[in-house]
Each structure stands twice: as structure tokens, then as C-alpha cells.
Amino acid sequence: MSTEFDIPQPVRDAGGWRVLAPFRIREYRLLIAAVSLSIFADGMFAVVLALQVIELDNNPVSLSIVMTCFGAAFVAFVLVGGIAADRINQRSIIIGVETVNVVAASAIAVLGMIGALQIWHLALGATAMGTAAAFFFPAYSAILPRILPAEQLLAANGVEGVVRPVFQRAVGPAVAGLLVGATFPAAGSVVVAVLFTIGLVLLVATRATTRAAVDESDVERAHVLRDLRDGFVFMLRTPWLLWTLLFASVFVLVVLGPIEVLLPFIADDRFDDGARMYGFILAFFGMGSALGALAVSWGRLPRRYLTVMMAMWGVGSVPLVIIGFTSSFSLMALATFVVGVTDGAGMVIWGTLLQRRVPTEMLGRVSSLDFFVSLAFMPVSFAIVGPLSKVVSMQAIFLVAGIAPVVLAAVAMYAAKMRHDELAHPLR
User: Which residues form the Major facilitator superfamily (MFS) profile domain (predicted)?
Assistant: First the structure.
């Protein structure tokens, strides 16, 4: 159990407007500005990529291939990314990640503008971006405790929890849908490349962090395999962590593929202006996620933080069933909005939980294990859902996506005894 380690104690209430407190620190302001632009670019690129595939080859299998390349690269390198985050300067890693994004997006934009773009180009670009993302998330999670005091971590996670859905799932997709609908997918790729470039400039303008969450001179730099082993041991000895990740891995298998691969084709098939409607549907998800994240981050962690988190992710997935059956834009938008609210709220709790209950010197490795275990089936989900849609109805696929997480969440809570654990380890 995590009680074997020196876990920071609950911090004092920071008072009103605590969500704005991190912005007093210059390095955080530059970091979140750069991350916001990159998230905006990611949100646009998700729509641009799907619509570009539809333009080149209107086949769910082709989009499955491209998305599988992204997912497989992410899963393959995320453990390496976590070890790197604990051993290499996190700022340098984040700058390197943004550089890869700039190069990949620029190459796709140029090829699209000259009419030479092919599916394999998109697959290669997705592979590069997936690899970069595997290094970004552990580094970002590990750098926050080094530039912010402990009492500001919930607020910072809340800010990111608002920024990510607003730009990645709301503004980005909506802008991309409108832009591509009025022009062509390559124009969207150009804007994505520009946004990544501006983000890179902001990251270069940051200074190396001077706040050390631990005395790194006293931390033994163990062998890489020993670092990885220690992370796995901590995960296996911590039931709330292990069972949440197991829940997330199966959740991703049944939910992520239908949303990322099939939803663009559903919008294209059921609505006259598929590109614009697809962007707006994702926008409602993003607005819901932002609202859920803001609601949680504005106050303190719930006393029953594990119960609330699992209920959000489990019961909150039920509206996905509606997507498979309805041809009403209003109902589809409402369903994605509700799913977004619960997803955003749960993610803020989860991010704060990791930073509060995981030893700081292991945070990079545990964060990478978080992504590795929880997203292990992401490429599988992407790979099978396209071909599966040829033999199984969309209604059946989204029915499973909406109902299965409820059962999975209940199993995880029981197996990890989460209701007892959250009372034994209060974080308020």
C-alpha cells in the first residue's frame, strides 16, 4: 500500500479563487500557454486527420490503420517516457516533443497542399506524434510539482482539465470542422503546424525549473530496469491504483475506438454537412469536459474521491448508447456533453490523486505506467473497430460502449476496497 511511503499530508485551503493561484508563477504561465496552443492544435488535427482520410479513402478501415499507428507508438514508448521524465530534465523533454509535432504537422501540411498526401503519410505522421505524446504526458505530470507548491496542484490540474477539453474537444474541432468544410483538409493542417510552432517558441522562452520537489542530489540514479521495476512494484502494491488502471484499460478497449474511429463516419452518414456536424459534436464533449473539470477544481477534493471518480467514469458513459441509435444532432450533442462532464470531473480528481498519493521521485514512472496500462488496448480498439463495423451494427457497438463501463467500475471498486481506502487516506 502507498502508506509505506512518505506521502504529503493534506494541504490547507487556499481560499477563494484558488484556481487562479498558479498563474502567479511565470514559468507556469508560459508552460500552460504553450500547452494550450498545442492542445488546440491536437483538437484541430484530430478532425483534420479524420476528414483527410475520408477525402483520400472513405473507409473506416483506413482510419483504423492511421489511428492504430498513433496508439501503438504511444503505448510502445510511454514507459520509456516515464523513465525519461524521472531521469532527464522535463523541460527539455517537452521542448523535444513540441519539435516533433512541428515537423510532423508541417510535413503533412506541405504534402497536402501540393496534392501528394497519401494514407501512409498520415500513418507515419500519426506514429511520430504518438511517440512524442508518450514522452509529453509523464514529463508534464512530473514538472508541475517542481514549479508549483503542493496546495496549487489541484488548481493547476483543474486549469489543464478545463483547457484540454475546451481546446482539444470544443474549440479545436469546431474550428477545424468549419475551416475544412469551407476549404479543404490541407488548409487545416497548415493552421495546426503554425499553432505547434508558436507553442514551441513559448516553451523555449521558459527557464529551467529551480524548485526541487525532492533533493535530487540524494536520489540514487538506479539502473533503468530497476526504475521500471520499482514503478511496477508500487503499482501492484497499491490496490486503488492497480484496479483503476485495469478498469481504464478495458474502458479504453470498448469506448475509445467507437468514438475516435466510428463517430466521424456516423456524422458523415447521418448529417448533410458531416464535417461541420462532427466538429460540433466533439465541441459539445469538450464544453462538458471543461465544465466538469472546472466544477471539481473550483473547490476541494470530494471526501469520497475514489467513489466519485469511478461513478463519473462508469455511470457517465451510459449516454454513449444514444449515439448509436439517434439521427438527431441535438440528442447526440447532449449525450456527448454529459459524457464530457463526467470525464472531465473524473480526470481532475485522478490527476490530483496521483500527485498527492504517489511519491514525487516516482511520479514520472507511475504516470507512464498510468498511460501504459490504461491505454494498453488503445491500438487494439482502433484496429478492430473499423473492421468490426463491417459485420456488427453501430447500435450494438455503442450499446456495449455505454453499458460495459458501469459493470467494470463496480468490479474495480469492490476488488480494490476503494470505499475503505478513501476514508483511510483523506486528502481534503
Answer: 1-211
Render pLDDT for 98-151 as a digit per residue (tens, 0 to 9): 999 999 999 999 999 998 999 999 999 999 999 998 898 778 877 887 888 777
- At 106, the amino acid letter reads S
Say how many Å lie between the first and final Cα of the chain, rounded.
20
CATH architecture of 24-208+223-424: Up-down Bundle (1.20)
Query: What secondary structure letter does DSSP report for 260?
Result: I
For every residue of 314-348, DSSP letters joined together read HHTTTTHHHHHH---HHHHHHHHHHHHHHHHHHHH
Three-state SS at 221: coil
Q: How far apart are CA 51 and CA 4, in angstroms?
A: 50
pLDDT for residue 95? 93
Under DSSP, is residue 428 helix (H, G, I), strand (E, B) or coil?
coil
Q: Which pLDDT does position 369 carry in this prediction?
A: 74
What does the H/E/C string look like for 34-53? HHHHHHHHHHHHHHHHHHHH
How far, in Å, CA of 179 to CA of 188, rounded?
7
Per-domain residue ranges of the chain: 24-208+223-424
